[in-house]
């Protein structure tokens, strides 16, 4: 009796799922080997294929036996990440700063006190990590205390790229477990986790480049799960801890807040304040590079805002354009945050949708220059998918231009394509919301 039952569970849908998993693993290995030899088109093509498979996998899995489909999805995701664990991060050098900050703290030195090139840190230099640190001669670390704690803890496992990647993959595994638990809470198939687990953005940005956003996502997702279970204050603390790793997590706080509830803001402020206490010996140095980063990324000149930048390419410089754009963006984000906080519908699905819209609004308006910032949206591919989420997470690969003498289209062309795709997807999502006659701002029942 057992053999026929097992055979039935491995139907054609399950076999298709397994075939996609094997194909994506092979593709990941191939791209890691060929990207630098052939050029950026290899990475762009792999993102297109990976996105298609991630989109398709959940739908194929819904037709298969979930007791077989979910393990295939998780094993396939683990194999894709294992394929990149031992590779050098070729798309970003941030991981070397993570390791350096952990090493500096282990030596009993405040990481906000000195730039890496300072003579006071000369004894900590080595031939593997030190030469690859970005901004080593002019910038103290930008990462908040939560990130610093992650760096310290992980580097106690080993001060190497592999050790840091492995530690961050453990955080990502916690995030994946939280996504599955959230899907159960949302009464959605757990196999929808494939949309995140197989998507190329987290595969390359966490397993490939080792970005600390994985730890931020773990705290954010566990916080959202705590909120859906009725533990709002615990959720606020967890989300605040996520924001202490990457501030993007703060965008989830309006989802947790109920009108006139002062305890949640107090818990969040207290958590953030306590986290900074161990580093206050550096004084204002804990924020020393923030102004430089804002200027470096073009947020003062306006070129860092993709919508404004593209507009001014067509019209020429606009008088007070940056100030007007910042004011309009702040007003829009503030109004959306208040609308989410005062929403009537507190159901799990409405809450996920509200969190998704807050992240979309911020990422579209602020338009970060790096693909890994869009990792904050990647879990919502499974939890609350929309066209804009798929486009932002998938088309962000267009930002990369790291292969010397590459034949990719000009940066301006790629950003114009990205922006047009995002605006088209956003218009579609807003039209769908309008047709439902249920604006996310008021959170009425779907």
Can you walk through the features of this model?
The chain starts with a helix and ends in an 11-residue tail after the last helix. It is an all-alpha fold. The radius of gyration is 22 Å and the shape is globular. Helix content is 63%, strand content 0%. The protein contains 20 helices and no strands. The longest helix is centred in the first third of the chain and has 27 residues, at 12-38. Mean pLDDT is 92; it is low at 1-8 and 438-446.
For this entry, give a set of tags:
446 residues; mainly alpha; 20 helices
Topology:
Elements: H1 2-9, H2 12-38, H3 40-62, H4 66-85, H5 94-106, H6 145-155, H7 161-185, H8 194-197, H9 200-208, H10 213-228, H11 232-243, H12 253-256, H13 263-276, H14 290-296, H15 306-315, H16 321-341, H17 348-366, H18 380-383, H19 387-395, H20 411-435
Concise overview:
This protein is mainly alpha-helical.
User: What's the β-strand tally?
Assistant: 0
What is the chain-wise order of helices and strands? HHHHHHHHHHHHHHHHHHHH
Largest sheet: none
**Roughly how much helix do the residues carry, as a percent range?**
55-70%
Write down the Rg. Answer: 22 Å
Mean pLDDT: 92
Beta-strand content bin: under 5%
Q: What is the helix tally?
A: 20
Shape: globular
Distance between the termini: 45 Å
The structural class is mainly alpha
Low-confidence residue ranges? 1-8, 438-446
């Amino acid at each position: 009796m057992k053999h026929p039952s097992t055979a039935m569970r491995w139907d054609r849908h399950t076999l298709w799922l397994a075939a996609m998993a094997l194909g994506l693993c092979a593709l990941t290995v191939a791209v890691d080997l060929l990207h630098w030899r052939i050029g950026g088109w290899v990475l762009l093509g792999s993102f297109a294929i990976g996105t298609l498979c991630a989109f398709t996998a959940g739908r194929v899995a819904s037709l298969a036996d979930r007791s077989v489909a979910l393990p295939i999805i998780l094993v396939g995701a683990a194999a894709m990440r294992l394929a990149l664990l031992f590779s050098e991060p070729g798309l970003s050098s941030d991981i070397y700063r993570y390791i350096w900050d952990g090493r500096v703290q282990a030596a009993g030195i405040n990481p906000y006190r000195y730039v890496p090139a300072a003579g006071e840190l000369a004894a900590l230099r080595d031939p593997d990590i030190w030469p690859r640190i970005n901004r080593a001669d002019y910038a103290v670390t930008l990462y908040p205390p939560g990130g610093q704690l992650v760096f310290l803890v992980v580097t106690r496992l080993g001060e190497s790229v592999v050790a840091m990647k492995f530690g961050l993959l453990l955080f990502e595994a916690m995030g994946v477990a939280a996504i599955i638990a959230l899907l159960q809470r949302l009464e959605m198939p757990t196999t929808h986790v494939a949309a995140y687990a197989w998507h190329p953005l987290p595969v390359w940005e966490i397993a490939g480049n080792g970005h600390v956003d994985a730890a931020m996502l773990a705290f954010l997702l566990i916080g959202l799960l705590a909120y859906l279970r009725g533990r709002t204050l615990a959720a606020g603390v967890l989300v605040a801890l996520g924001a202490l790793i990457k501030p993007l997590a703060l965008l989830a706080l309006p989802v947790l807040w109920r009108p006139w509830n002062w305890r949640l803001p107090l818990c969040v402020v207290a958590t953030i304040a306590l986290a900074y206490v161990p580093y206050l010996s550096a004084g204002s140095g804990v924020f020393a590079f923030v102004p430089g980063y804002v200027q470096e990324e073009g947020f003062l000149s306006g070129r860092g805002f993709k919508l404004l930048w593209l507009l001014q390419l067509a019209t020429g410089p606009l008088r007070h354009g940056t100030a007007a754009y910042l004011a309009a963006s702040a007003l829009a984000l503030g109004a959306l945050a208040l609308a989410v906080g005062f929403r009537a519908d507190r159901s799990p699905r409405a809450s996920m949708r509200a969190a998704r819209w807050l992240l979309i609004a911020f990422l579209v308006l602020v338009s970060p220059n790096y693909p890994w910032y869009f990792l904050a949206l990647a879990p919502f591919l499974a939890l609350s998918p929309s066209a804009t989420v798929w486009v932002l997470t998938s088309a962000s690969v267009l930002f990369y231009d790291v292969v010397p003498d590459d034949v990719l289209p000009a940066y301006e062309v790629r950003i114009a394509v990205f922006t047009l795709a995002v605006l088209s997807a956003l218009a579609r999502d807003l039209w769908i919301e309008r047709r439902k006659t249920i604006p996310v701002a008021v959170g009425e029942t779907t």
